[in-house]
Specification:
The protein contains nine helices and twelve strands. By secondary structure, the protein is of the alpha/beta class. The strands form four sheets. A five-stranded mixed sheet has the order 4-3-5-12-6. A three-stranded antiparallel sheet has the order 10-7-11. A two-stranded antiparallel sheet has the order 1-2.
């Protein structure tokens, strides 16, 4: 029996299109024409002998067999990209220290550490999860080589904005807060201990609307905030990314809550001089963010 080798470019078109929510967006992201993307999808169906996509509204979604191939395609592409990175960067050695905001610790950091370590086994990569102020202070002190942090309005010569992320109000899925904007009761909030940028944004937004509030629960770590929010002790302000399934985004208008700004996410290296380790890690960070964030959040 002759085995079929799946086309890697075609698999990348499939994965990119489904993750971007549009194969037109995939064509733009991959630098190909829409006809080339369509040819890739047709080729995959010919190679697998299966219908992989079906129409849903104006778009396409995977069939049951398409979902199976999608799962394998993601794994194949990761291995392909790791192999290429390893072959191109076998000479990399040394140590690099990466710091990330708490919001991205369980998702982005896990993927970055694993992929970087496999591609560059001679490099020792160290990760640190911390709050924004702590990250910027450690970067300035030379204790970190690269951070993924919130833009705080402070001009930093080497910082690069990589995403613009909307903020949102979050509440419990199973234990909604018994509060209404029409009531005289102050809104209960759950938040990180001060100083905290997102805590300050929440309080300023409520003050600007003239909405009374009270701090119902504070925590030194994000898991504590999630636990209190899921228990229904209060409403939190974070991003739509990375929160547990026990917490959901709330529609601001229907809950009488103020609209919130978009927050910049920046990659900030310790210095602007060329550094192969930092440059390689920045490239991997950009790729990982594109894989996990909605396309509209990404800043080109």
């Amino acid at each position: 029996m002759r085995l079929t080798n799946l086309d890697m470019d075609a698999l990348r078109s499939l994965v990119t299109g489904l993750e971007a929510g549009s194969f037109v967006r995939a064509a733009d992201r991959l630098g190909r024409s829409t006809s080339a993307i369509s040819a890739h999808l047709k080729k995959l169906e010919e190679q697998t002998g299966a219908l992989l996509l079906r129409k849903s509204g104006r778009g396409l979604i995977p069939t049951e067999q398409g979902e199976v191939l999608l799962a394998y395609a993601r794994r194949l592409l990761v291995l392909n990209d790791e192999a290429m990175a390893a072959l191109r960067g076998v000479e990399l050695e040394g140590r690099i220290r990466l710091g990330l905001q708490q919001d991205f610790g369980e998702t982005i950091l896990r993927h970055v550490l694993g992929r970087f370590a496999r591609a560059h086994p001679k490099v020792r990569i160290e990760g640190r999860i911390a709050r924004n102020r702590e990250l910027t202070e450690h970067l300035a002190a030379g204790a970190l080589d690269l951070i993924l942090a919130w833009g705080d309005g402070v001009a930093r010569p080497h910082a690069e904005t990589v995403a613009a992320i909307p903020l949102c109000w979050l509440g419990s899925v199973d234990n909604p807060v018994a509060w209404s904007s029409a009531s005289a009761e102050p809104l209960p909030l759950t938040a990180l201990e001060a100083p905290c940028m997102l805590r300050d944004i929440a309080c300023a937004a409520l003050d600007g609307q003239g909405q009374p509030w009270r701090m119902a629960f504070t925590s030194s770590s994000l898991p504590g905030v999630w636990a209190a929010t899921a228990a229904g002790l209060g409403i939190a302000l974070r991003t739509p990314f990375g929160h547990p399934a026990s917490v959901r985004s709330l529609d601001a208008a229907s809950h009488g809550l103020p609209e919130l700004p978009v927050l910049q996410l920046v990659l900030d290296p310790a210095h602007g001089q060329e550094n192969p380790l930092t440059d390689t890690l920045i490239t991997l960070m950009r790729e990982t963010l594109r894989e996990h964030f909605p396309r509209e959040w990404i800043v080109s």
